[in-house]
Design brief:
This protein is of the alpha+beta class. The protein contains four helices and three strands; from the N terminus they run αββαααβ. Strands 1-2-3 form a three-stranded antiparallel beta sheet, with no helix packed on it. A hairpin with a 4-residue loop joins β1 and β2 (37-41). The two termini are 14 Å apart.
């Protein structure tokens, strides 16, 4: 959730300041195997920011996002931009159909 929070901050505010106190910010909905598999909410603000982000904005954010500590300097901004393009498409579809985004992780 830290990485997604930083993505949201970069998209909306242009920095990586995090705000974990919102209702749908990484709220755990389901867990299996002591947290090895988890489903959490994606913040509404991130969904909206992705849905309206231009391709140029996504490329710009992917470059900055690739530099966060959590990625350890090993994530290619081009790969992140492709991921964000796909995520933005999901956000647009979710908005169009009145749905929300969720994040599923598996360790």
């Amino acid at each position: 959730m830290v990485a997604l929070g930083q993505l949201e901050s970069l998209l909306i505010r242009g920095n990586t300041d995090l705000d974990f106190k919102r209702e749908r910010f990484g709220k755990t909905l389901a867990q299996l195997d002591d947290g090895a598999v988890t489903v959490v909410t994606v913040p509404d603000e991130l969904q909206q920011a992705l849905a309206v982000a231009s391709e140029d904005r996504i490329d710009e954010v992917a470059e900055s996002w690739s530099e966060i500590e959590e990625f350890g300097g090993v994530v290619d901004p081009t790969d992140l931009a492709q991921f964000l393009d796909d995520l933005a498409d999901m956000a647009r579809t979710a908005n169009r159909t009145g749905q929300l985004l969720y994040c599923w992780t598996c360790l």
